[in-house]
Amino acid sequence: MPELPEVEVIRRALVARVVGYEIVEARVSEPRLTRRRGRPADLARAVVGRRVEALRRRGKFLVFVLGEESLIVRLGMTGQLLWWDTRERFQPDGHTHAYLGFAQGGMLSYRDVRKFGEMFLLPTQALDATLRVGVEPLESAFTVAALRSICRESRARIKSLLLNQRKIAGIGNIYADEALFRAGVRPMRRATSLRPEEIGLLWRGIRAVLRSGIRHRGSSISDYRDPAGQPGNFGALHRVYHRHGTPCRICGTVIKRTVLGQRGTHYCPSCQR
DNA sequence: ATATGCACCTGTGTGC
DNA sequence: TGCACACAGGTGCATA
């Protein structure tokens, strides 16, 4: 579900609520959440008494900096972080697998129907080395030249490359399809086959769709909600994603759907070459 | 290195 | 109505 724009919307909504506050209570009730490292009870015990110093995002990871260690949350397909102003208002359901209680009385709960998400602690110093994610596409290090060199050294199809978190961090299935549409490039093209002008258009497309996704508070196809429980509005602005069988907004050609790398892939056969 | 298939989960929509 | 099947914003592993 959540790609870079959705995670960033969540981060911005939570910053003022959690940064500077101590975690006074924690519970993790689903063992799958900590499957990669540690046990639920140990994680809960480790965060109580810590103050949130900063809330960051790295690709699709949300990072609660707690001092020497950081709590990392990855939302998988259906993970949600929901904010409750008081303990009395907190309403967990059968899909709520964890929660944190803060010193000012607010609660943050983790809800995840499919349980693909995870949370774990890492030393704050070693985040980048351990998470092993590539360049942040909205930061200054992501230049046209950087994208050009990423494309030059990969024989993969361009969409698969965009989805590879170790190359560029945070792009998922929606924003990959939308960025390629804006660039006029077919998803199945080899990365090495992109001409310089196409790489420039793709760079602009990636940045434009991610920024627009954030501005419109994310894409809510079915599950995504912000911490207040509100859906995003970017879905109505999609030009190809989930629009197969309907006319292209630019040229009227029927949008196609195919499968590439096991993922549904949407494109305009006329606008994208 | 790249692609494919499958696994992990639960829910929803579709067609017969 | 029931049932089987496809599909879903993600990722990791085993295998060609």
Task: Give a verbal description of the structure.
This protein has helices spanning 4-18, 40-47, 127-131, 144-152, 158-163, 173-183, 196-215; strands at 23-28, 54-58, 61-65, 69-74, 79-84, 96-102, 107-112, 118-123, 256-260, 263-267. The protein is of the alpha+beta class and 273 residues long. The strands form 3 sheets. The protein has a 4-stranded antiparallel beta sheet. A 4-stranded antiparallel beta sheet has the order 2-3-4-8. A hairpin with a 4-residue loop joins strand 6 and strand 7 (107-112). Helix 1 (4-18) packs parallel to helix 7 (196-215). The model has no long low-confidence stretch (mean pLDDT 97). The protein binds a DNA duplex (16 and 16 nucleotides) through helix 6.
Quick structural summary:
With 273 residues, this protein is α+β, with helices and mostly antiparallel strands. Helices cover 27% and strands 21% of the residues. The mean pLDDT is 97.
